[in-house]
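Morning run. Coffee first, then this:
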Amino acid sequence: MTHKTDAPLGSVNASNDLLPQPPPLVPPPLPVPALMTMMERAKTTSASFAPLDQPLPAKSVRRLSRPKRYLSFPEGSSFTVCVAVCITVGIIGNPYYAYNSYGLNWGVAYDLPNNTWVLQSLHGFTRNPSLAPVLRRRTRSAIYQDIEAIADNMGYNGRDCVLRTLCESRQYFQRNKMNMIGEMLRIIFSLPKQRIFTRELQENSDIVHYDNAYRHAHNVDCAQQYACQFSLLELAFGKYSTPPKNYYAQ
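And here it is:
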């Protein structure tokens, strides 16, 4: 038969105090920032960016699609740029005063193209040497048509006046020394010597008449060949600006 005895509470607490206690948790000290020289900092920076110089894998490269966009205008449209300058000046008067306004306007109109060559040149002009004469004849033809319209509105035969000018320019500019105005007229009323292509005839069949008048003008009397009463070249050089001799005596 055993007897169970309860130990006093004070003895239990005394035995717990005798056990070893764990050390307190102390945070580790923060590292002290070290001073770096400029060379060490440059090496560290270049090392951190070293992987950027390596080529990316093919799977991570994605090509972006950026299709070209175009605007479509109705046939016969034109692009017009207008510049206007308005100045208001006050006039001092006694007992009244007034203002005068002066305005100057400039306008430039460009006929939007409506030809198939635009679609053929979507990706840029090629380096084909035959393309330059085609562009020159196309631009000259547009200028000649505008001159014809002006002459027709004045009561003259615009087509024959332009053909006569092309004929005279081939004869005149080859034997005379020109000034600045003459050089400008020579550039306008001159055509390339290369042959005409079939696609040019499909775009504008009138280019044949301009080319023949300029190409076969060596031994031709231009004034008798074309039904035009005056010469555009002589008009530009100022021949018609002064009256003929004994004009007022009549």
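Residues 1-5, 7-15 have pLDDT under 50 and may be disordered. Good start to the day.
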